[in-house]
Amino acid sequence: MVLYVLNTLIVPINFDETPQAKIKLRRISVEEAKEILAGGFVSAVGHEATAKVLSQLLGIQVPMERRTIFLKPGDRAIHFFLKVRLPEGAILSEDELRKLDYWLVLSEVEAQSP
């Protein structure tokens, strides 16, 4: 079981390995995210400014790691989800990110029988 931090609400599943899955999503507070992440995590945050904002917000080092991941049954992820759609190609600075509304969302993957 792996815990990831992502800068998107997309829940990446490898359908070749897990043809069907049930995903639980729920909004969580910063405090709850801190508790969940205290046991360790894998960062898949692909943008430097977002990683820095998350590090400050959560009080832990969230490294920028641009990697492809797939969640498997039993995995969880904390998603940093901006509540606005950015223009195509937009790359925001830390200051610009801090001005936007966001949610932290916890996803949990459960295996399902086909």
Explain what the structure shows.
- The structure is a single chain.
- This protein is of the alpha/beta class.
- It has one domain (3-41, 48-72, 92-111): Rossmann fold, CATH 3.40.50.
- It is 21% helix and 28% strand.
- The chain contains three helices and five strands, in the order ββαβαβαβ.
- The protein has a five-stranded mixed β-sheet with strand order 2-5-4-1-3.
**What CATH architecture would you give?**
3-Layer(aba) Sandwich
Radius of gyration: 14 Å
Q: What is the helix tally?
A: 3
State the fourth-level CATH superfamily.
Uncharacterised protein PF08960, DUF1874
The topology string of helices and strands comes to EEHEHEHE
* Residue share in β-strands: 25-35%
| Contiguous uncertain segments of 5+ residues | none
Determine the CATH topology. Rossmann fold
Number of domains: 1
Structural class label: alpha/beta
Sheet with most strands: strand arrangement: 2-5-4-1-3
Helix content: 10-25%
The geometry reads as globular
Quote the average pLDDT. Answer: 90
CATH first level: Alpha Beta
Distance between the ends: 21 Å
| Number of DSSP E strands | 5
Largest sheet: 5 strands, mixed
Write the layout of secondary structure elements.
Elements: E1 3-6, E2 21-28, H1 30-37, E3 42-44, H2 48-58, E4 76-82, H3 94-98, E5 102-111
Parallel strand pairs: 1-3, 1-4
Antiparallel strand pairs: 2-5, 4-5
